[in-house]
Amino acid sequence: MAVMERIQAEVEGHPIVLFMKGTPAYPMCGFSARAVQALQAAGAERLHTVNVLEEPEVRANLPRYSNWPTFPQLFLHGELLGGCEVTLELLESGELQRMVSEAQSQ
């Protein structure tokens, strides 16, 4: 499977996907750690993550797929929401909780 197809399958196959550096238990950068913490605070229980440090092809091609240059990248229902700052802003506004709840109920 081509890497772009694999990325698309990950994004479309799970309601909440976070492409990050490391894992939720062992994040390898502060931005990834804060994004995971925000998602957990918003009630995300079925969070699917992809460790881009272990997937060099995904790491190299995801910015082209999403048109977003940095990591982490958060997708809900196949749509890119953004990175760490966007995730934190959505948490502060209360929107992230609503979005996560809707994503998990489907």
TrEMBL record:
Biological classification of the source: Bacteria, Pseudomonadati, Pseudomonadota, Gammaproteobacteria, Lysobacterales
Domain Glutaredoxin: from-to ranges: 16-80
SUPFAM superfamilies reported for this sequence: Thioredoxin-like (SSF52833)
Binding residue positions for [2Fe-2S] cluster: 29
Gene3D superfamilies: Glutaredoxin (3.40.30.10)
Gene: grxD
This protein's UniProt keywords: 2Fe-2S, Iron, Iron-sulfur, Metal-binding, Redox-active center
Identification of the protein by name: Glutaredoxin
Keyword Zinc-finger: no
GO molecular function terms attached to this record: 2 iron, 2 sulfur cluster binding; disulfide oxidoreductase activity; metal ion binding
Family: Belongs to the glutaredoxin family. Monothiol subfamily.
